[in-house]
């Protein structure tokens, strides 16, 4: 019997940021430290590295001695090719018994030195872009517990951030909640998850079902979204995730100033109304009571003076709480959820 | 530069049906002979085989001498395990220079004897369940030519048959048309295609785009559907195929007596109206003018006396031509297409 499982990462982490001097390339590393500081034991930096996560610098030896269990590659290599110095660190970590965890475009298992080192120590090589084996086909069976899914008018529009902020706000409100990661950065933050866009097409909804299993009736899974039902490249991923998550509630993520699909500028973004309607029309197939509970808006490109008006316009259009989670947090959406789902069923 | 390509099979074919005595297990073989007799040179049968495709019996030697280019496995092995006698035939065929083509659950490339034989002769081993490499992400760019996609209220509801029958009817009407295969049997019939449900989730619509490239303005691609937007397991495949095909027209495939999703009986089938509405709502994202042009109904379980009434009820509900393609053919749908798309744009 093959176990059905998600990708799993063992904390605590040592995060490799190499010799990076541009924090934007280290977004993953900063995200982990921001959202899950308790998982991070230290950072590995080469001399001259100016990026600083604000956690202790550690060598591989220090980390192994301190009980660190995984080396995470928390930066994207500039230009895409991985420097030899990084490979050397990964190999040393694997030899010292640390799992090596990354989402690079080069496969760890294609690096003989690292493979041999991992074999010698029993360390695991974890590629967070590789789905777990033995994924099931979605069965559509109703699961216990509640689920809220982030959806978007586009890709790269704040779904992961919103999920993490909403999860945090739910916990602050004393609710039982778990963040469920569907992409590589989210998986590193949550220390588990499934890279939903990398699964074979037949298993998308099955993977989503596996990711948010039966739970307490008053527990909420806060599911990171992927793609968009309106995206000409990635809509299949989004529909499978919607059907498999069978969400009770969803939050639409939007960018106040984006009017075209990023990178696919021959497509305009849908309106919030269109976006909500299509998600309800499609989503009710596996959850007849699906409803939208809020809108998360990136207002970073909006003048400060105009921001409140902008959010008010979206609120008027949808009749829902509209927040920029980075500025306002997600408490208004949590409040809405508690209004709409008052019973601990 | 890596070529973007579909799975391709070289005719003429020798079809292995082994020692089968139940024609239902040889559906693929019969389908190829029914729809593409010109591709089939012969059949390979063991002594005692009672199934007969009505084409010449041939040995591997005969086939090689006659210029046959591919051995196709046209039967599903009873119980799932492939008899040794079949492996021996495949190995002999590969050694004789015939490509070996199958969609078995065992991989040809895991059979050392067959791999060695193929290497010795230069024959190809083609698994029609394995997508071509280097699939692109869908770009959503408008392509020239027309497309009609089969969709369904469920899986296994006649989408392939309808596509083949509609393609045939279009050709009989003197129209330019190509059948585009998205599943393994369809690929064997068309001698090319992409097994769309086996591609990685991010590339579903890109694969669909590749499958129906730019063409003459008055040319129709007749695209085999997969899954259903309403299927709890396979909806992601269907939406990616819908968006990537960007169909001008679609045909809904339905079963007159099926009321529940086959194998997922906790789900009822959608009504034809619901099915049409959701496909228009989702499909207009990549083709704003998408429209339904007909309904293909399997009436095999309906009393002969009731059949006309049954089709008439569906026609009344939808305002569209409703046919059982096995009995009525698809001429009424072709007529509707020519009414709705009168201009050779």
From TrEMBL, chains A, B:
Instruction: Return the InterPro entries for the record.
Output: DgcN-like, DgcN-like_C, DgcN-like_N, P-loop_NTPase
Name the PANTHER family on file.
Answer: DUF1611 DOMAIN-CONTAINING PROTEIN (PTHR40690:SF1), GLL3100 PROTEIN (PTHR40690)
Q: What is this protein called?
A: DUF1611 domain-containing protein
Which species does the entry assign this protein to?
A: Elongatibacter sediminis
Indicate the secretion signal residues. Answer: none
Where does the source fall among the domains of life? Bacteria
Q: Pfam families recorded for this chain?
A: DUF1611 (PF07755), DUF1611_N (PF17396)
> Which residues does the UniProt record annotate as the domain D-glutamate N-acetyltransferase-like C-terminal?
137-334
Which intervals hold domain D-glutamate N-acetyltransferase-like N-terminal? Answer: 48-131
User: Which SUPFAM superfamilies is this protein grouped with?
Assistant: P-loop containing nucleoside triphosphate hydrolases
């Amino acid at each position: 019997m093959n176990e059905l499982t998600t990708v799993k990462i063992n904390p605590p982490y040592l995060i490799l940021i190499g010799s990076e001097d541009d924090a934007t390339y280290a977004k993953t590393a900063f995200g982990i430290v921001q959202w899950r500081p308790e998982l991070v034991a230290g950072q590995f930096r080469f001399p001259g590295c100016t990026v600083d996560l604000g956690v202790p610098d550690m060598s591989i030896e220090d980390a192994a001695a301190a009980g660190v269990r995984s080396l995470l590659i928390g930066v994207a290599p500039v230009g895409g090719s991985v420097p030899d110095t990084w490979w050397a660190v990964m190999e040393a970590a694997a030899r010292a018994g640390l799992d090596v965890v990354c989402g690079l475009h080069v496969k760890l298992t294609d690096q003989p030195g690292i493979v041999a080192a991992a074999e010698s120590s029993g360390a695991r090589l974890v590629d967070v872009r590789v789905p777990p084996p033995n994924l099931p086909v979605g069965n559509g069976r109703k699961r216990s517990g509640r689920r809220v899914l982030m959806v978007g008018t586009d890709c790269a529009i704040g779904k992961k951030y919103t999920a993490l902020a909403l999860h945090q706000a739910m916990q602050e409100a004393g609710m039982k909640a778990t963040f469920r990661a569907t992409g590589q950065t989210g998986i590193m933050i949550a220390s588990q998850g499934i890279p939903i866009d990398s699964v074979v097409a037949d298993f998308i909804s099955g993977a989503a079902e596996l990711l948010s299993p039966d739970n307490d009736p008053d527990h909420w899974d806060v599911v990171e979204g992927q793609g968009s039902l309106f995206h000409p490249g990635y809509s299949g991923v989004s529909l499978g995730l919607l059907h498999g998550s069978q969400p009770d509630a969803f939050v639409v993520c939007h960018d106040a100033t984006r009017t075209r699909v990023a990178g696919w500028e021959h497509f305009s973004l849908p309106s919030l109304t269109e976006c909500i309607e299509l998600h309800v029309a499609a989503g009710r197939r596996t959850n007849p009571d699906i409803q939208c509970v809020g809108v998360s808006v990136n207002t970073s490109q909006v003048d400060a003076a105009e921001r409140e008006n902008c959010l008010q316009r979206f609120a008027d259009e949808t009749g829902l709480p509209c927040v920029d989670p980075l500025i306002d947090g997600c408490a208004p959406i949590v409040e809405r959820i508690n209004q709409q789902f008052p019973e601990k069923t």
